[in-house]
Design brief:
By secondary structure, the protein is an alpha/beta fold. It is about 40% helix and about 20% strand. The protein has one domain: Hypothetical Protein Ychn, Chain: A, CATH 3.40.1260. It is built from five helices and five strands. The chain is globular and about 45 Å long.
Length: about 150
């Protein structure tokens, strides 16, 4: 009887742990449009924290002035207390398999059309509205805007 009770309790704990783990599997779509370094830093630090969590999928979509982060030669100032720039935070999130996309409007409408696809950081691709709609319309999707 004691063994049966322990087996039952162990089985219930395992089932509860499985549900808890499954509940943590989410896809996050973080849209970043702000040119404010502190806002960018907060969004990208959050993206990194979420990407570190096993089972999470993180997509970062840059548009508007935040699109400058996707440009290889753009180096924004560092933020305290970590002394890292928003771009470095973005690259850190990518090391945890976060995917970074650039709004397809950015390159053809950038200042004086000065940027081309070859100017993008490695691993960053353009995203159109069809693909973005696919990302945000699945199950367990959380969309966060900055």
């Amino acid at each position: 009887m004691k063994t049966s009770l322990m087996t039952l309790v162990a089985g219930l704990l395992l089932a509860a742990a499985s549900v808890a783990i499954a509940d943590n599997d989410h896809t996050y779509v973080i849209t970043l449009n702000s040119d404010e370094e502190q806002t960018q830093g907060m969004a990208l630090e959050l993206a990194t924290a979420l990407a570190r969590e096993e089972g999470n999928t993180v997509h970062i979509v840059l548009c508007g002035d935040a699109g400058e982060l996707a440009i290889e030669r753009n180096i924004p100032p560092s933020l305290e207390p970590r002394s890292v720039s928003p771009k470095e935070m973005m690259m850190e999130a990518m090391t945890f398999e976060a995917e970074v996309y650039l709004c397809h409007f950015f390159l053809p409408n950038s200042r004086a059309r000065q940027y081309e696809e070859t100017d993008l950081e490695e691993g960053i691709t353009q995203i159109n509205s069809t693909r973005l709609a696919e990302l945000v319309s699945g199950e367990n999707i959380r969309v966060l805007g900055f």
